[in-house]
Amino acid sequence: MKNQEKKSLFSIEILGIILGLLWIAPFYLMVVNAFKTKRDIFSGVLGLPGTWEFENFVQAFIDLSFLKSLFNSVMITGLSVGIIIIFSSMAGYALARNKSKISGVLFFVFVAAMLIPFQSVMIPLVSMFGQADMLNAAGLIFMYLGFGCSLSIFLYHGAMTGVSKSLDEAAIIDGASRFQLFWKIIFPLLKPISVTVGILNVIWIWNDYLLPSLVLSEANATIPLKMFYFFGQYTKQWHLALAGLTIAIIPVIFGYFFAQKQIINGVSEGAVK
Amino acid sequence: MNNRSMAFWLFLTPVILALAIVVVIPFVYGFFYSFTDWNGLSATKFIGFEHYINLFQEKEFMNSIWFTIKFAVASVLLLNFFGLVLALIVTRNIKTNNLLRTVFFMPNLIGGLILGFIWQFIFVSVFGDIGDMLGAEGMQGWLSTTETGFWGLVILTSWQMAGYIMIIYIAYLENIPKELIEAAKIDGASSFQRFKNITFPLVAPAFTISMFLTLSTSFKIYDQNLSLTNGGPYNSTQMVAMEIVRTAFSDNQMSYAQAKAVIFFLIVAVVALTQVYYNKKREVEM
């Protein structure tokens, strides 16, 4: 009995490892071929490179204006997610503490807005912001607040059920304003959900392509946007294209390495709710 | 915090403004524009249902709807299959389970645009090379026919998102009481019987969640479509989201594209509302 179980566990482990190798194969092929010369790729893509060509990475790094794109991505993602967390947590708190009809209606509107796909508002949105001369980074950050607040408010609203109302009352009696009460007492208690909200929004905004492509000029391009231009420039030159893709992925792998547990928990929480 | 208090409204003003300006107003305007000859700046006349009549007769648009539906069905099935298989593997007591979770989940963190480019290389060069080695004609020219382009998109999406669905199944699998499985083992139930009678029923809610989640995500896919096939050959692998973007920003037919966007909204809303209905029904039954 015990022996049989060990055997079946062993075969499951083998199956898992085979699937795991299959799953990372695309990354392996990308990195390996990014180190090859054009001729090397032509003669075979599966093996290791004959000579390791670091030159590809240097050129891709320059052509992607990588430091600039990285800076743009960090700024836009950082500011957008910061603003989403600040305003959604305040709204989630206000809506959860107010039991009136209007509060219920507002909450419903925020949740219902999640039904609307981006493409259904995209055209008038771009036209409106264009006429207001707001097709720039500031306009983009404001758009991310509009698109991101619904899910974030929903998550904060849910988390508020675990925060006792007596905290509010005690603080008000002590003479604190609503604003102080929220930032000094409630917000710190919401930290776990803030981590979830932050992670979900970072993954989305960091990788978003379509919205920035409609809003930002090439000079302010984020990594996905720059990658798109770069790739168009190097079709049929896989050694350079793959080096560029490898560079573009590095920041994400880096983040995943340090915050793996929080990321998986955050995503799990966001999906199951 | 009552609703006449200043604080209530102050706390809500930023998000109400953002939602109104970014989502609600464009949505309402868009609906209105779809009945006019709006060109992105101004509308001169009301044309009723003309755009809607035209779009149902446009071959390319109807083709994109069918292609999207077929794609969504195939991805939903494969994604849930792989998601469940991966979750069943990594929730067993094996040495590599943490490492495997990390690996399976990784593609989710990288944008669809970048992943599509990587897979373009795989389908074109790697598949071509393997085909040469095996002498298999069928491995050549992936992405250059509608059929293989379709499967290319399905494979890319399944690979990218299976780890995400796995996470959902893991959450449910880890909630199954260990005693239940142990008791069934003592009673002599085979591992297949245990899966069929204990695991599967307890994981069924996760199936509903994942199914609708994958369905609505696959309907809205754009980045992967753009970077993997770019809609080719001859726009035959173009999905609805991409079709709308093209009509608006390449062909400059703003109000016509907006009418397509309204239809797109209706399809997505029906899928989502069906999900809400099922979830409610399930909660009542429980």
From TrEMBL, chain A:
The chain crosses the membrane at residues 12-31, 70-93, 105-129, 141-160, 181-206, 238-259. Its main location: membrane. It is a multi-pass membrane protein. Residues 70-259 form the ABC transmembrane type-1 domain. CDD domains: TM_PBP2. Keywords: Cell membrane, Membrane, Transmembrane, Transmembrane helix, Transport. InterPro entries: MetI-like (IPR000515), MetI-like_sf (IPR035906). It is found in: Cell membrane. Pfam families: BPD_transp_1. PANTHER family: ABC TRANSPORTER PERMEASE PROTEIN MG189-RELATED, ABC TRANSPORTER PERMEASE PROTEIN MG189-RELATED-RELATED. Belongs to the binding-protein-dependent transport system permease family. This is Sugar ABC transporter permease. It comes from Thalassobacillus devorans. The lineage of its organism: Bacteria, Bacillati, Bacillota, Bacilli, Bacillales.
From TrEMBL, chain B:
Keywords: Cell membrane, Membrane, Transmembrane, Transmembrane helix, Transport. It is a multi-pass membrane protein. Pfam families: BPD_transp_1. Residues 65-275 form the ABC transmembrane type-1 domain. It is found in: Cell membrane. The chain crosses the membrane at residues 7-32, 65-91, 103-128, 148-172, 200-222, 261-278. InterPro entries: ABC_transporter_permease, MetI-like, MetI-like_sf. Belongs to the binding-protein-dependent transport system permease family. This is ABC transporter permease.
